[in-house]
Write a structure and sequence with these properties.
Layout (H helix, E strand, L loop, with lengths): L3 H15 L5 H10 L4 E5 L5 E5 L2 E4 L14 H9 L5 H11 L1 E7 L4 E6 L4 E5 L3
Antiparallel strand pairs: 1-2, 1-4, 2-3, 4-5, 5-6
Helix pairs in contact: 1-2, 3-4
């Protein structure tokens, strides 16, 4: 379990990333330094769950999207290729393609996108 100081540091890192003060690569490096090794994003809400050891921290929802009930693999691959979009626009593209969540595994630099029907697309983390 993360103590209050660690949790404070975690939110400081999130805020620095959100403000553009640090790059995505630096963001991931700083997460690892405080013991966070993976996170999952709920595409419909933008809510993130950060995990490491016995620590699990959830952020507040940021959006309310409808995830398509029909998975379109080609649309999903196009959205994934467009990861440089603003975060909420990226989520919209994933939702339109029928992706309900994705998980980032920092040490292995792997991302797993989970479709509405349970199909998994594995991609290399783009830094």
């Amino acid at each position: 379990m993360m103590d209050k100081t660690g949790e404070s540091k975690f939110f400081e890192i999130l805020n620095r990333r959100a403000s553009g003060e640090i790059s995505f690569a630096d963001f991931l490096e700083e997460l690892v330094k405080i013991g966070i090794y993976e996170y999952e994003i709920d595409v419909a809400t933008g809510q993130a769950t950060y995990k490491g050891g016995e620590t699990e921290i959830k952020t507040d929802p940021q959006i309310n999207l409808m995830v398509s009930e029909k998975f379109d693999r080609n649309k999903a691959l196009a959205a994934i290729a467009n990861i440089s979009l603003h975060f909420l626009d990226f989520l919209q593209e994933l939702a339109d393609a029928g992706i309900k969540s994705y998980s980032v595994f920092i040490p292995t630099k792997k991302v797993e996108y989970i479709s509405i029907n349970g199909e998994v697309i594995v991609d290399k983390l783009k830094l």
